[in-house]
Amino acid sequence: MKYPIILFTLFFASSIPLMGQYQFEPIHEIQHTPIKDQCNTGTCWSFSTISFLESEAARMTQQDVNLSEMYIVRNIYMDKGMNYMLRQGKAQFSEGGLAHDVINTLDKHGVVPQGKTSIKDPAYHDHNELVSILTGMLKQLIKDKTIGKNWKRAYNAVLDIFFGFIPEKFSIDNKEYNPMTYAESLGLDADNYINLTSFTHHPYHDEFILEIPDNYSNGSYWNLPMSDLEKSVDSALEKGYTVAWDGDVSENFFRQSKGLAVNPEKGADGFSGPVKEIEYDVKKRQELFENYSTTDDHLMHIVGLFKDQKGNQYYKIKNSWGEEGPYKGYLYMSKSYFQFKTVSVTLHKDAIPKGVIK
Question: What domains are there in the chain, each with its CATH number?
Fold first, then answer.
């Protein structure tokens, strides 16, 4: 069954009343698929980036697609297991991941539609047992130094049980595909996507491997001043592109239950209505990252740019916690929160302004 597509731009100027005294008016809202729920898993990175790729497919082909997050997760677990074994257990092995892991899987293994292949896409996801089994298996192999030729087969068999078998081919509308040809049919090309970040412990306008725990695959990021990173996101939305966002959601003023992520000055109640927010400070941003106040907590999907009744701008964010909160799974993130708490973004290279991409 196909999901209905949300109209990508709102042409009317009527205000949308939100939590408390907030009133938001759309500047740009880009085509995207409905809210999903990652349930009891740490797979926000797959849900957010698959949502991003669904918007990309809709932008390029006008096709209404519903892609499988678990196909990506299954492939990533095989990759993580191999990485963990080769590094003799001295590597990150967890449920976490990043947007570029999905893009890497797109490049190597393609994508598949949800519910159309042997991959299991249940209504409720719970990976506690899976992670316990995989972790125990790998640690015991390393401890006993019993690394034979069969461990990959045994490890893969566990993945088959939990996720289903990797499909060799499948049919949609009487046309046969494999995961790679299906990705190609949607216009999805891994080479088109780029990772951006903004930190001062590496030179600006250079590429580096971002030092965060979930970057097990050593993905590299282009380092930009925050003004250029923010300009790139705004440019993307203006041109009709969406953005995959990675950042910190552990702050008191990130509240899905209220549909807001704001950064008010000390003593102000940011939930009752628009207030003055903390002005950006590059040294403070770096300090928060280095003292672990800003951590790589969660990935979500930026699908729009809005303004409140005072003219302040916010990004409309699609989360993957189900239809939680007053806005049924969405929230509005202020520019100040974005500036201080963004770890990275992933977007199409053509969305970046020419002066920045140069």
Answer: 16-352 (3.90.70.10)
